[in-house]
TrEMBL record:
Organism, as annotated: Mucilaginibacter arboris
InterPro entries: PIN-like_dom_sf, PIN_dom
Domain PIN: 5-132
Pfam families named in the record: PIN_2
Name under which the protein is recorded: PIN domain-containing protein
């Protein structure tokens, strides 16, 4: 199975519409992909919790239930296990794209996986720099259906 590192945008999309494409991919890709993310992503979700509830029109309890379901599909990795050299390389890659995404790029390199992002600027910037492996949602859909 392919290791896919998901960024916060993908989780936001899944929480806001679990029946949409990203939700379908997260919940129905067993046997195709193994999903990973940084521990930091949980902090990001909590930081934007009120905004997620407002946009989704879910109650706090409903959002909590949706969040718990998403968490069961993702393997979380503590960023502390990533080597300093990997961090430095990731910082160099994202410094002129979006430094806030350094965690996801570092984890992608550490796991030798592929980054799935909903951030168009990050996607384009990484593609331009010939980053090892970055996917949009459309790319992930193609990969999954290619394997069936």
């Amino acid at each position: 199975m392919k290791k896919i590192i998901v960024d916060t945008n993908i989780i936001f999309s899944t929480l806001l519409n679990s029946n949409g494409t990203t939700g379908d991919l997260i919940f129905n890709s067993n046997g195709f992909f193994e999903f990973y993310s940084c521990d930091y992503m949980r902090f990001e979700i909590r930081k934007h919790w009120s905004k997620l509830i407002k946009i989704s029109k879910l109650t706090d309890e409903e959002m909590h239930d949706a969040y718990e379901k998403v968490l069961t599909k993702i393997n979380f990795i503590n960023e502390a296990i990533i080597s300093p050299a990997t961090w430095i390389k990731a910082e160099q890659i994202v410094r002129d794209i979006d430094p806030d995404d350094v965690d996801f790029v570092a984890l992608t390199n550490h796991l030798k996986g592929c980054l799935w992002t909903g951030d168009k600027e990050l996607y384009s910037g990484l593609k331009e720099k010939k980053f090892r492996c970055v996917y949009s949602t459309a790319d992930i859909v193609k990969k999954r259906y290619k394997q069936t």
